[in-house]
Specification:
- The protein is α/β, with parallel strands linked by helices.
- The chain has 3 domains: about 40 residues, no CATH class; about 140 residues, NAD(P)-binding Rossmann-like Domain (Rossmann fold, 3-Layer(aba) Sandwich); about 140 residues, no CATH class.
- The chain has 16 helices and 13 strands.
- The strands form 3 sheets. It has a 7-stranded parallel sheet with strand order 6-5-4-3-7-8-9, sandwiched between helices. The protein has a 4-stranded mixed sheet with strand order 11-10-12-13, with helices on one face.
- Helix 4 links the parallel strand 5 and strand 6.
- The structure holds NADP nicotinamide-adenine-dinucleotide phosphate (NAP).
Length: about 425
Amino acid sequence: MAISRLLLRFTHRNDTSCQFLIREIRVIRGKVFIRVLLVVKMKNIVILGSTGSIGQNTLSIIRQEPENFQVAGLSAKSSINLLEKQVEEFHPETVVITDEEAGEKFLLRSAAEKTEVILGNEGLRQLVKKPGIDLVIIALVGIAGLLPTLEAIEARKTIALATKEVLVSAGSIIMSQAKKNKVEILPIDSEHNSIFQALRGHQEAEIRRIILTASGGSLREVKGDLSDIKPSVALRHPVWKMGKKISIDSSTLMNKGLEVIEAHYLFGIAPSSIEVVIHKESIAHSFVEFSDGFILATLALPNMKLPLSYVLHYPERAKSNLPKLNFSKITKLSFENPDFGRFPCLKYAYNALNKGGTMPAVLNRANEVAVEAFLKERINFGRIPEIIKKTMNLHQVTEEPNLEDILAADRWAEEKAGKLI
Ligand SMILES: NC(=O)c1ccc[n+]([C@@H]2O[C@H](COP(=O)([O-])OP(=O)(O)OC[C@H]3O[C@@H](n4cnc5c(N)ncnc54)[C@H](OP(=O)(O)O)[C@@H]3O)[C@@H](O)[C@H]2O)c1
């Protein structure tokens, strides 16, 4: 009985983090006795983008739970000082530095003799397919995450995905490859993570609507014209502390637009059944409405360590040490419609999703180019949506694109948006 209960408890584990070893089988007076040894293995984790906001938050959870997790690989673009500290602390077998110049400097001074160092983008693809990896956390920024994610799926690694741009650009390809290779994609974005939790045990056909909440970004209280907002103002997010690109995306509401597209691919929901609501308190992360009218809301403190801990421990639940949500201190939860006129990027994301084919990849790249130019103060805030709209208007959509078509559309949008700047 005890054994069957024990076995049942782990029936749903789809990872390699525990094994049963049958030590002895005896038959005594007609009864069978089996002695089983349960071996709980540490999960081997790879983090692409370990020096970023998501990467550092992930490592801070791993730091608290050395008995559960082991770092197998890390990557950065050029933040070699921080990467060096991470290598000294977590002793990964492999690190990848995609900026080769920074990588050469790292090699010259690094004392990490036991760590293999690979330079260049190709290194990300080599890293994710190494044997013995249980979970690959994709936390790079932008389209740079696409090819390593596909490689990890083909190598049948479980994926925890923060880089929404991957699904925005190539959602159909990613999801069909994941299905073909029987790979689970665990969303890290707090909204999608909460929907993923709400949907466990439910069928796609039972869902009537999903509602993504949005904090409203740094400019939600700013009145008047937004066109000359400075990067330092747009970067000041009222709730979340995040990397620069996503902070600007939040200020334009493009982040929510990208999340609408991400939700469409992850959960197979029609664009018309995905809604956005501004919820300044960022306590409710999403709502899932079922066909019978019931709505499941997922509430939690706005802290990325919660979804990160969820994906690290999945399919189990962690014992969190984070502060509890104190309902007596929440005086109100407010909900408003987004202002599509002031924040047209959200509308452009819906348009791109409805157009389909290569258009979401074009939206994504035009946005990446425009945000980078804004951060370097080459264009003003008002030109971000303008550049995205113009690039989309110039694009001839390829229907049902393959990977080559997506990559070609991405390059095309990079060039066109660059010229517009
Ligand atoms: N931050 C959040 O709370 C949050 C929440 C939900 C979703 N997300 C999503 O998660 C992703 C990461 O966001 P973040 O805020 O963690 O970003 P971030 O702080 O800017 O960190 C990005 C990481 O990716 C690396 N990187 C950047 N560009 C790269 C490239 N071209 N090739 C290879 N590596 C590159 C960076 O290395 P260097 O440090 O060397 O530049 C860094 O390690 C984004 O897609 C974002 O939308 C973030």
